[in-house]
């Protein structure tokens, strides 16, 4: 089937990169933006709160990809509007919370958290299982994103707990949430030859992938350059007038903090994954570090691959999916390596041993 794709937020950091991928492949799409500051001749330029303009846009597309941020302010509103029009909907930032009021209205395919983290993080888990293990008993994944961050991205990071992306200081074991007790606050990254401050946060995506792969115990951690950076982010969080519905007011506060938090030493994304499990009847321990391009580039490529999967699918299911349920992890790892979106994969440890011998 031929679908017409509409890209909301086409002039943002993720949107621009996604449009470039689609243009190179000759995929039919239209751009949509809240602003005409950039060249969008012949495209949709409208305020999403303008009901007539938004509905005109929706009548002209079959698939809507939402790259607009911050999700804290716009995610739920956009999702509800699109889904009530029975469009295929892909949201790069939004998670389950954007759908909380419209579960009974879903009559199309919805893909949530279709970016770098969450998004690619779930795909990594599937790739590791396929490549290294017959069964995974425990996975501990840590994530760091360096380089420039936007005000929109910063707000969504700060408000992730409030929005229900997951639970802080918890892990997932035997299909139950458990509070971290003897928590490690440092993770050493071989690739960068330095330690990072570690904060546990088990995301909904990691819970879903744990259930999908039958992993008994799952941990997830956000990494920060230092404990001081983590405390600074907490301080910014408490300064935010979150009840203020004017994004521009909040944006001004966040913009003033950029010089303190933007990390220019490493302009990319990085995962450290520590895994225990079985392979060929033997116990196995694996530690990987996966070094990627910046978060916005990875998010755009994940979106592109999801669109490609939908376009070439002979049958689409109705309901809510995550990227790891749609995309073949081995195929995308191979492609991203060739494109240098994955810059390196370090096997810090890869050991097989008989029970009781490690």
Radius of gyration based on Cα positions: 20 Å
Order of helices and strands: EHEEHEHEEHEHHEEEEEHEHHHEEHEHHE
Number of strands: 17
Number of helices: 13
Categorize the overall geometry. Answer: globular
Name of the CATH homologous superfamily of the largest domain: Dihydrodipicolinate Reductase, domain 2
* Quaternary structure of the protein: single chain
Reading off the top of the CATH hierarchy, the class of the largest domain is best stated as: Alpha Beta
Q: What fold name stands as the CATH topology of the largest domain?
A: Dihydrodipicolinate Reductase, domain 2
Low-pLDDT windows of residues: none
Helix/strand class? alpha/beta
What does it look like?
It is globular and about 65 Å long. By secondary structure, the protein is of the alpha/beta class. It has two domains: 5-114 and 298-329, NAD(P)-binding Rossmann-like Domain (Rossmann fold); 120-293 and 331-353, 2-Layer Sandwich (Dihydrodipicolinate Reductase, domain 2), CATH 3.30.360.10. Strands 7, 8, 9, 10, 11, 12, 13, 14, 15 and 17 form a ten-stranded mixed β-sheet that branches. It has helices at 13-24, 51-59, 71-84, 120-132, 151-158, 160-163, 204-213, 227-239, 247-255, 258-261, 295-312, 323-326, 329-338; strands at residues 5-8, 29-33, 44-45, 63-66, 88-91, 109-111, 135-145, 166-168, 170-173, 176-179, 186-189, 194-203, 217-224, 269-279, 282-292, 319-321, 342-353.
């Amino acid at each position: 089937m031929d679908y017409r794709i509409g890209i909301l937020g086409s002039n943002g950091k993720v949107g621009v990169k996604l449009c470039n991928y689609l243009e190179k492949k000759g995929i039919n799409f239209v751009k949509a933006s809240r602003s005409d500051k950039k060249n969008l001749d012949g495209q949709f330029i409208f305020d999403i709160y303008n009901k007539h303009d938004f509905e005109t846009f929706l009548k002209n597309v079959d698939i809507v990809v939402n790259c607009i941020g911050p999700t804290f302010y716009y995610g739920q509103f956009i999702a509800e509007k699109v889904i009530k029009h029975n469009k295929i909907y892909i949201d790069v930032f939004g998670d389950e919370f954007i759908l909380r009021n419209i579960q009974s209205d879903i009559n199309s395919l919805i893909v949530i958290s279709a970016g770098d983290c969450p998004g690619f993080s779930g795909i990594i888990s599937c790739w590791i299982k396929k490549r290294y293990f017959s069964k995974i008993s425990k996975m501990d994944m840590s994530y760091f994103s360096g380089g420039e961050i936007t005000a929109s991205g910063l707000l969504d990071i700060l408000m992730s707990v409030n929005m229900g992306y997951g639970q802080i200081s918890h892990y997932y074991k035997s299909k139950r949430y458990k509070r971290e007790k003897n928590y490690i606050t440092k993770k050493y990254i071989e690739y960068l030859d330095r330690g990072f401050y570690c904060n546990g946060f088990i995301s909904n995506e990691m819970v879903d992938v744990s259930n999908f792969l039958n992993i008994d115990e799952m941990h997830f951690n956000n990494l920060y350059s230092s404990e001081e950076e983590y405390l600074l982010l907490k301080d910014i969080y408490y300064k935010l007038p979150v009840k203020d519905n004017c994004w521009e007011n909040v944006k001004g506060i966040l913009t003033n903090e950029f010089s303190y938090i933007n990390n220019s030493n490493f302009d990319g994304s990085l995962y450290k994954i520590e895994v225990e499990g079985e392979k060929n009847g033997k116990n196995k321990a694996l530690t990987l570090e996966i070094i990627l391009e910046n978060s916005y580039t990875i998010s755009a490529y994940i979106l592109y691959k999801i669109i490609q999967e939908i376009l070439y699918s002979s049958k689409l299911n109705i309901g809510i999916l995550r990227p790891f349920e749609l995309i073949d992890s081995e195929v995308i790892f191979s492609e991203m390596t060739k494109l240098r979106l994955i810059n390196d994969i370090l096997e810090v440890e890869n050991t097989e041993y008989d029970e009781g011998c490690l």
